[in-house]
């Protein structure tokens, strides 16, 4: 949303225009057009990055309703829908955008991203194949890596992940994805290194911490890693390690970890309590 301090400026501008001669020039009419005011204030960019997802969707829906021929507004709506977790609704919009005269290559990449979110990997791959090889961006290679993963083309996946990491200053998420790829292949040590690297870039990325615990547990190491964590995170990670131990037949270790998770959590840890009760019930049975 616009910062409050910009509102007096807008009000003054409108007041000044209202005091003009009644026979306004076309330039004045254009300045008064609400969509042009939005462009001048970069509100569309703000809505895409700073606004709450559903708020951005509502804004772009109104804007598209007023000017349905503007591809930039339809692009904003499609991107906002994806951001709001409504990729199913975004896909037909992106399809229309990439087929329109105002389409750019980034649209096809964003379309592929939406397709991946809906599980349409084949069409996502087809769209990425249509992107010129000269367009080398972080987002393009991140998606290429995910598609290669889905096809179990491990060498290609590693190549694309490595390329994507080199094209961003904030690689934590892609490093986490790469680590999960290695984890799914059974390359536990390599996965552990990638999760640690992701956490170094973003110490608050809990998904990477949880995956790191899984990678260590797969190697028989159930001790929590020496990374920054809150009390709640520590309890959740102990719970993850406990379940991994139980799945691998280490029930005594799992029971001890569950008890520690329950004791560590600052509130009632229902999931850990249920898991411990189920384990004890199974032993008694």
From TrEMBL:
SUPFAM superfamilies: TPR-like (SSF48452)
Residue windows of the TPR repeats: 172-205
InterPro entries linked to this entry: TPR-like_helical_dom_sf, TPR_rpt
Keywords assigned by UniProt, alphabetized: Signal, TPR repeat
Gene3D superfamilies: Tetratricopeptide repeat domain
Signal peptide region: 1-22
Residue stretches spanning the membrane: none
Pfam families the UniProt entry points to: TPR_16, TPR_19
Name of protein: Tetratricopeptide repeat protein
Organism expressing this protein natively: Roseicyclus persicicus
Lineage, uppermost ranks: Bacteria, Pseudomonadati, Pseudomonadota, Alphaproteobacteria, Rhodobacterales
């Amino acid at each position: 949303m616009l910062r409050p301090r910009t509102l007096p400026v807008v009000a003054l501008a409108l007041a000044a225009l209202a005091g003009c001669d009644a026979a306004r020039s076309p330039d004045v009419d254009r300045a008064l057009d609400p969509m042009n005011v939005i462009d001048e204030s970069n509100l569309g960019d703000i809505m895409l990055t700073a606004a709450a997802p559903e708020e951005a969707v509502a804004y772009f829906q109104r804007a598209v309703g007023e000017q349905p021929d503007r591809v930039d507004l339809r692009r904003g709506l499609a991107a906002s829908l994806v951001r709001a977790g409504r990729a199913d609704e975004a896909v037909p919009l992106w399809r229309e955008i990439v087929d329109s005269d105002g389409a750019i290559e980034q649209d096809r990449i964003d379309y592929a991203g939406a397709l991946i979110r809906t599980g349409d990997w084949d069409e996502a791959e087809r769209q990425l194949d249509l992107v010129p090889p000269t367009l080398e961006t972080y987002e393009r290679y991140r998606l290429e890596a995910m598609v290669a993963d889905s096809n179990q083309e491990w060498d290609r996946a590693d190549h694309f992940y490595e390329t994507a990491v080199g094209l961003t200053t904030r690689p934590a998420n892609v490093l986490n994805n790469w680590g999960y790829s290695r984890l799914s292949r059974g390359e536990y040590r390599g996965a552990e290194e990638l999760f640690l690297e992701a956490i170094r870039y973003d110490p608050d990325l809990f998904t990477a911490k949880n995956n790191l615990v899984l990678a260590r547990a797969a190697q028989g190491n159930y001790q929590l890693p020496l990374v920054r964590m809150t009390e709640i995170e520590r309890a959740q990670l102990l719970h993850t390690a406990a379940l991994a131990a139980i799945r691998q037949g280490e029930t005594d270790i799992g029971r001890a970890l569950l008890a520690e998770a329950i004791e560590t959590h600052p509130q009632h840890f229902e999931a850990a309590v249920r898991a411990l009760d189920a384990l004890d019930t199974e032993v008694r049975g």
